[in-house]
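[retry 2/3] Thioredoxin family protein: previous attempt timed out, resubmitting with same input.
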Amino acid sequence: MKTTATFYHAGCPVCVEAEQSVAQALDPQRYNVEIVHLGDQAGRVAEAKAAGVKSVPAIVMNGQTFHINFGAAIEALG
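[retry 2/3] Thioredoxin family protein: success.
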């Protein structure tokens, strides 16, 4: 059974670079990667906050939130 890894970002250059790196690094046999562009999907900001996202880019997988570099604070997105 595959695990879903949800990658949250805001479309900034740091986020886009991280998205490309993460998408390539995760084993597609083990993970379904969902990309959530919070600039385009503002309705999902509350979901990201509830998952523990404090800044983007970030990835949530196996119930844990991992922050990657720093593109924008989640508070700036909504």
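[retry 2/3] Thioredoxin family protein: The domain at 3-76 is CATH 3.40.30.10 (Glutaredoxin).
[retry 2/3] clearing retry counter.
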